[in-house]
Amino acid sequence: MPADAGLVLEEVTTGWCGAVVEVDRERVSLEDRHGKVRVFPLQTAGFLLEGQPVTLSRPVRAVAGAPRRTASGSVPVSGRPAQVAKASRIWVEGTHDAELVERVWGDDLRVEGVVVEPLDGVDDLASHVAAFRPARERRLGVLVDHLVPGSKESRIVARVSDPHVLVTGHPYVDVWQAVKPAAVGIAAWPVVPRDRPWKEGVCAALGWGESWQGWRRVLAAVEDYTDLEVPLLRSVEMLIDFVTAD
């Protein structure tokens, strides 16, 4: 929920109750009924709204006289009728990747009529691509996590060769890491031992609870493209350009 000015919240640890009077990337200030103000971490503190737990994000501020922008930074298209989904697709590794792409590029993809579909990993990517039957009017873009030289993912991608398929990726172990640490209120993503599931290790190190709870916190922290690392931005933009090219 955006931490809009005037929103009355209770901080769960201290019981402090007050209205939002100021917010920046990392902090939110709450003023109680006596005029006293306390400052709390925006992302890591727990808050209640009318007794229900909420995760806060920075409010979206409109700039007077400036054209409105989508979360990806593009100028929104108005007056265009709904587009029928095209045959071309963008595949991502899982639901978290799909939700993050939707959060930032959803407006652009709906204008273009492009559907993003999550895979359950990319181990069988070559067979999935063959079954898709890519063609000039049926292009396929694939976003792969941890696509670095020598990785398992790089060997899987090397088996895909089709002029109507473009595979891009980012160097991060998981798409969570493509969110800037400052956006979620941490100095850096924790280092997780290789023998432990990465998301589980991150949530344990940061006290975020279960993986689904950690993901809710991460996704809520992303407001637009400025909260994402450049390698992910570049890769997704390349895929969108590829599948929408005439």
Overview of the structural elements:
The structure is a single chain. This protein has 246 residues and is α/β, with parallel strands linked by helices. Among the domains are: 8-54; 89-179 and 222-244, Rossmann fold. It is built from six helices and ten strands, in the order E-E-E-E-E-E-E-H-E-H-E-H-E-H-H-H. A six-stranded antiparallel sheet has the order 4-3-2-1-5-6, with no helix packed on it. A four-stranded parallel sheet has the order 8-7-9-10, with helices on one face. The two termini are 39 Å apart. The model has no long low-confidence stretch (mean pLDDT 88).
Measured distance between first and last alpha carbons: 39 Å
**SS field, number of helical segments:** 6
Give Rg in angstroms.
Answer: 20 Å
What would you call the structural class? alpha/beta
Number of strands: 10
Mean pLDDT rating: 88
Using the alpha-carbon principal axes, give the shape: globular
Enter the CATH topology name of the domain at 89-179 and 222-244: Rossmann fold
Low-confidence blocks of residues = none
For the sheet with most strands, the description reads: 6 strands, antiparallel
What level of helicity do the residues show?
25-40%
Which range does the strand content fall in? 15-25%
Strand order, largest beta sheet: 4-3-2-1-5-6
Set out the fold topology.
Elements: E1 8-11, E2 17-23, E3 27-31, E4 37-41, E5 47-49, E6 52-54, E7 89-92, H1 95-112, E8 115-118, H2 125-132, E9 140-144, H3 152-158, E10 165-169, H4 198-206, H5 211-221, H6 230-244
Parallel strand pairs: 7-8, 7-9, 9-10
Antiparallel strand pairs: 1-2, 1-5, 2-3, 3-4, 5-6
